[in-house]
Amino acid sequence: MSAITVRVPAKVNLQLAVGPLRDDGYHDLVNVFHAVSLFDEVTAAEPLDPAPERDPSAAPLRVRVEGDLTGEVPVSDDNLAVRAARALADRAGRSYRADLLIRKSIPVAGGMAGGSADAAAALVACNELWGLGLPVEDLMEIAADIGSDVPFALLGDTAVGTGRGERLAPLETAGVFHWVFALADGGLSTPRVYGECDRLREEAGVAAPTPAVSEALLAALREGDATALGQALSNDLQPAALALRPSLADTLAAGREHGALGAIVSGSGPTCAFLTESAERAHELAALLKDVDGCRSVVTAHGPVPGATVAG
Ligand SMILES: C[C@@](CO)(OP(=O)(O)O)[C@H](O)COP(=O)(O)OP(=O)(O)OC[C@H]1O[C@@H](n2ccc(N)nc2=O)[C@H](O)[C@@H]1O
Ligand SMILES: Nc1ncnc2c1ncn2[C@@H]1O[C@H](COP(=O)(O)OP(=O)(O)O)[C@@H](O)[C@H]1O
Q1: Helices (H) and strands (E) in the chain, counts
Q2: Which burial class, exposed, middle or buried, applies to 260 when counting CB atoms under 10 A from its CB (0-12, 13-18, 19+)?
Q3: Ligand 1 midpoint to CA 36 (Å)
Q4: Domain boundaries in the chain?
Q5: What is the CATH number of domain 177-303?
Q6: What are the beta bridge partners of residue 17?
Q7: pTM (2 decimals)?
Q8: ipTM higher than 0.95?
């Protein structure tokens, strides 16, 4: 096969409980991930130019990015998809080549793990393109070294992540949940939001709690109860995201006023997520939120959906 395309979903965090800062610079988490139907696509293709023995200057891994607002996505070796492909080649012990094309629909630096999704998609695509046949457990290990959210993009559906979010256990869910996402202008830096969370806790003299999964959330997922799920959504990073981007409070309030079952900042933000009763209600709410200040665009999606999957 000379090209493999993988489709990979965005995530929203249904619960993000942030524990103390660890010595390695990460926080212990209980992170309930939920994959939603907003997808990036990554194609890994055999390069058409001469093999390296004939052109030693040719880079083994190259990347192009297509889509709206892809300005902040690096097209260098720092791209998370390139880092993932390189880590996979290193594991296989050979200098494989690939041209990667990322078609982005997931907002960049939006708290929906688009970069992590691209890394997971690159692992699946290159594993196939290079005929490595590595099992998903091996891909999971490589994924965790790239970033805390990357393993979940391989797994998809709904899962709880512990440790720094990379140790996953799938969660039982029933039915389909309907979401509206309000995308903001510009991103928020994940380390900066974690740093602000620590700062706010210190300022308030509050010790970081030991993170624990919400039983109410687990029950709502098991029963497919959107009303209960809306009430159980929680995000310990939300106060920090709001401190750094105060306009998000207005976006969340607008969603609640228009009847969302739950309104929350997704992960480190600035994307805001709204849960609704039905696909129809999601479209109605999306239309109402379109004109809210600070809202760049609004999309609807459903979850859960599977993780990185070879297309076609
Ligand atoms: C906050 C979350 C919620 O799912 O995602 P986003 O909302 O940004 O997508 C994640 O915890 C982000 O995971 P990811 O984006 O993979 O982060 P990593 O590359 O592993 O780490 C980037 C930086 O975030 C901080 N970090 C990340 C994970 C963690 N458990 N504790 C942390 O403090 C650290 O400062 C770290 O250096
Ligand atoms: N393939 C990629 N897609 C998006 N961002 C990437 C990618 N590779 C590296 N990055 C960098 O990672 C940062 C965080 O990206 P992203 O995963 O979209 O956001 P978040 O961590 O908020 O979910 C971006 O600011 C960008 O500089």
Answers
A1: 10, 12
A2: buried
A3: 19
A4: 3-171, 177-303
A5: 3.30.70.890
A6: 30
A7: 0.97
A8: yes
